[in-house]
Specification:
receptor; signal; two-stranded antiparallel sheet; Ferric Hydroxamate Uptake Protein, Chain A, domain 1; siderophore uptake transmembrane transporter activity
Length: 134
């Protein structure tokens, strides 16, 4: 009895789902109202942002003294706080081993300050049996 009731309910729902699109509003070709939108003019100036020694401008981020002051930068974590996709790689006990840009870190990230390349991470060296290993 229960299955028969479910079967009837399914048939009823199916018939309603197929019948309802019949009542959808049809727009005749002559009844369609078209609106003419105003013309928009866009004016812009081309700005040169690429330096002569720069390979590409993609992903380049420049921070000025004013920007650092506004963002209240005190350490390297503050430096990347408002930049999406850039994170400081944690090393433990508050130390960091460089930056991670969209998942890439270590020697795959180029960091320059005033045009000078910066070191990304330090290689730990340990003495084992009187010999140094890198």
């Amino acid at each position: 009895m229960q299955q028969q009731h479910l079967f009837r309910l399914n048939i009823l729902c199916l018939s309603l789902m197929t019948a309802l699109p019949v009542y959808a509003e049809n727009v005749q070709a002559g009844q369609a109202q078209e609106k003419q939108l105003d013309t928009i003019q866009v004016k812009a100036k081309k700005q040169k942002t690429r330096r002569d020694n720069e390979v590409t401008g993609l992903g380049k981020l420049v921070k000025t003294a004013d920007t650092l002051s506004k963002e209240q930068v005190l350490d390297i974590r503050d430096l990347t706080r408002y930049d999406p996709g850039i994170a400081v790689v944690e090393q433990g006990r508050g130390a960091s081993s460089g930056y991670s840009i969209r998942g890439m870190d270590k020697n795959r990230v180029s960091l320059t300050v005033d045009g000078l390349a910066q070191i990304q991470s330090y290689t730990a060296q340990a003495a084992l049996g009187g010999t140094r290993t890198a």
